[in-house]
Recover the amino acids of this structure.
């Protein structure tokens, strides 16, 4: 996730990632969904997978993703047909917060596009908590 004061490296990496954003190329998350590479799964149902971020920005940092990307490389590509999965992802984020014991106070973040430092082009919700979070974000 993009830090409050993103370095030029992070911004450059985000720009590079964006060049492949809409090629339909698989991302690291496809390998996590297929269990080809390991992840620490927190919650799973037929539509979504939630797993711990490898580079946590808070004591609790979980990513919630649709198992079927269906064109949702980023939130900015959402169409009316995605309404059900978008609602499902948000509700799954609340279930994750409950399971992680942070439902009294947590944050859900979606970085959409290079300007927001998105680095993986498979829609994902960051569920963050377990410490006092600051506002505004960077
Ligand atoms: P974003 O910058 O919003 O696109 O977020 C992508 C997130 O994916 C970052 O917070 C990364 O730390 C996380 N990430 C990348 N690879 C993995 C992985 N193999 N397992 C868990 N999280 C990952």
């Amino acid at each position: 996730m993009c830090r409050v004061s993103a370095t030029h490296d992070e911004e450059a990496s985000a720009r590079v990632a964006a060049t492949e954003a809409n090629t339909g190329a698989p991302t690291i998350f496809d390998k996590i969904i297929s269990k080809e590479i390991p992840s620490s799964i927190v919650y799973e149902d037929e539509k979504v997978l939630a797993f711990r971020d490898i580079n946590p920005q808070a004591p609790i940092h979980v990513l919630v993703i649709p198992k079927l990307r269906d064109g949702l490389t980023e939130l900015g590509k959402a169409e009316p047909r995605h309404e059900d999965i978008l609602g499902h992802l948000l509700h799954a984020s609340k279930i994750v917060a409950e399971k992680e014991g942070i439902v009294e106070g947590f944050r859900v973040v979606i970085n959409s596009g290079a300007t927001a430092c998105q680095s993986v082009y498979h829609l994902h919700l960051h569920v963050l908590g377990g410490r006092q979070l600051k506002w505004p974000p960077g």
